[in-house]
Amino acid sequence: MPDTSETIVGVEYVLTLRHEEGGDLFGSSKGYTVDLRVDPIDKGGSITGSHYEEGYIFDRYWQALHKYDELYAEYDKKEGELQPSNEVTDEKLAETNDRGEIIEDSGGFYTNQHYWDCDCSKNYIHKKALKLSCSYCGADNRGVGEDDCPDSREKEVSKLFN
Ligand SMILES: [Zn+2]
């Protein structure tokens, strides 16, 4: 039995973002998964001892994309070859507006996954990256329980930029 640590000559990092529709043995896995597989390459050019280093599941595409970008930056710096694949973009499941933000069809209108609405009657659109709760109306969008606030309508968000 050869010592494999001496026969490994390189490594590939396979980073994947995909959309899962159904459940599996462990229950529902519906959502967006991000995982990173490490494929060590031996002298003969074969992959030996693949394993998953990272694995996440998210409800929303923008959350998954955030993690994907984070892992991309982290593993791109490492020695070895990064093989990124965002299958959601490939499948055109996600759409973006002209500012590159992710929008989705919410049944007759588009919502923007980067913004949320609180309960205030004015100035109710908040950017998730900046603010996840409103001190005026008490709305909280930090993802606990079922009190999640809705994503803002794209039409209303785009008005802020025009
Ligand atoms: Zn508010």
Characterization of this structure:
By secondary structure, the chain is α+β, with helices and mostly antiparallel strands. Helices cover 20% and strands 39% of the residues. The chain has 4 helices and 11 strands. A hairpin with a 5-residue loop joins strand 7 and strand 8. The chain is elongated and about 65 Å long. 17% of the residues are buried. The structure holds zinc ion. The site of zinc ion has 8 residues, from loops.
Note the main sheet. 5 strands, antiparallel
Number of helices: 4
Oligomer: single chain
Shape summary: elongated
Each distinct ligand = zinc ion
The chain-level structural class is alpha+beta
Helical content band: 10-25%
Mean pLDDT: 85
What is the H/E string?
HEEEEEHEHEEEEEH
Integer-rounded radius of gyration: 20 Å
Number of separate domains: 2
Outline of the structure:
The protein is of the alpha+beta class.
What's the arrangement of secondary structure elements?
Blueprint: H1 4-7, E1 8-20, E2 23-24, E3 27-28, E4 31-42, E5 51-58, H2 61-76, E6 81-86, H3 87-91, E7 95-96, E8 102-105, E9 110-117, E10 125-127, E11 151-153, H4 154-160
Parallel strand pairs: 1-6
Antiparallel strand pairs: 1-4, 2-3, 4-5, 7-8, 8-9, 9-10, 9-11
Bound molecules: zinc ion (ZN).
